[in-house]
User: What shape does this take?
Amino acid sequence: MRILIRKAKIVHANSTLNGTVKDILVEQGIITKIHEEIKLDGDVDFIVEEEDLHVSIGLCDLGATFGEPGIETKEDIDSGIEAAVKGGYSCVAIMPNTNPTVSNRSYVEYILNKAKGKPVKIYPLGSVSQETKGEELAEMYDMKQAGAVAFTDGKKAIQNAHLLSRALLYTKSFDGLVMTFANDKQINHKGVVNEGEMSTHLGLEGIPHLAEELQVARDIYLAEYNNSPIHIRTLSSKKSVDLIREAQKKGVRVTADVAAHQLVFTDESLSDFDTHYKVLPPYRTLQDIDALKQGIKEGVISSIVSDHTPVEVEDKEKEFDLASFGIINLQTAFPLMLTHLSSEFSLEELIDKMAIQPRKLLKIAVPEIKEGVEADLLLFSPTKKWRFKEKDIVSKSKNTPFVNTEFVGGVYGLLSNRKFTKSVLL
Assistant: This one.
C-alpha cells in the first residue's frame, strides 16, 4: 500500500518539522519520504490532498467504555474501534466495566487477542477491585503481566478508603497505576444533575461539587501517604483543580484528566430535559469550565479524554432522573475541541493533551513523524466546516447530543498499524 499525503502542515511540538508544510509518502505502513514536493515514481493507492490539511500523530484516549465481553449490544470491540478510527484515535485504553468485568488475566488476554491487527491499538484497563464491587482487590499483578496498562473501577467510585490505600501500595511494587473516579456516594445520594440554580429550577436531585471534591482530597492524601502515583479521572469542579494543583506543588504524584464535553457544556444545557446531556460527572458552571481550562494550560490536568460511554436507546429514552448517564464521544471529541477551544489553545497544545500526554501516562511509546518509522498519522483540518449526521454514527449506541451539529474542524483519516482508514470528511 502506497499513500501520498500532499501539502500537509505538520503538528508535532517536539519535532523540527513542526509547523512545516510537507509531502509525506507512506509505503507498506512506513514513512519512506518527507519532502517539500515528492515526485511519484510509480502508482500510489491513495493521494490525500485536501483543504487546510494538517498531520499529527494519532490521538490516544485514556478510558473509553466498550461493552465486550458481555454487553456487546452497547458497543463491541469492533464497533468501538471503528468509532475511534473515525475520530482520529490510534490508541484507546478501555474500561473494565463489562460483564464479566476485566478482573483477571484471561479477560485482558481476550481483549488483546480480539483487537490484534486492528487499525487502533487497544490497551485494556484492569479493575482495582473484584468485579468492580469495591470489596476485594482484583488480580492486578497478573493483569499487569498479561498487558493491562492501568487499573480502575471506571465510574464506580471506590468508596472504601482502606481498599484504595492497599491498591496504591500494592501497585507501587510493580510500577502500576491506579486511576480513580471521584464521587462520594453518601454526599451524592441520588443526584442526577449539578446541584445549583438549574437543579432547583428543574426540580431534579442535585450532585454537589462536594461529592467530587471530598474524594479528590481523600485520594490525594492516600497517594501521599503511600508515596504512590494516582490518576483522577474526568474532573468537573474548580475546587478539584485547586486541590490537585496544591498537591502537585507539594510533590504528590497525582495527575488528572477532563472529558472534552465538560469543557463545553454547563448545566444550562439541561433546560429542556434532554437526556443526551445527562452525564457523570454532571455539567457544572462556567466558573468550573474556566478553572478546568486554566488547569489544562498549567499542566495540572494532563489529558483531555473522550469519556466515551455507550448507552442503549431504551436506557436514554426515559424520564430524566431514570435515564442512564453517558455520551458516545470517540468520533466527536476532537472536532468538539477544534470547534470550541481553538481560540484558547494552539493545535500543538491540543495534540499534546489528546495524543502525547495520555501515552506518557500509560508508558506507551509516543510515535514520531520522520522517515523510516511506522506511520501513526492523523490527517485533519482545524478549519473545515461540516455537519455531523446520524448516518455518520458508527457506534452501536446513538446517545449523543451532536446529531446535526456543525463542527469547525474534523478528521480526514487515520494511518495506523499499517492501515489507512478514511473518516467522514474524506
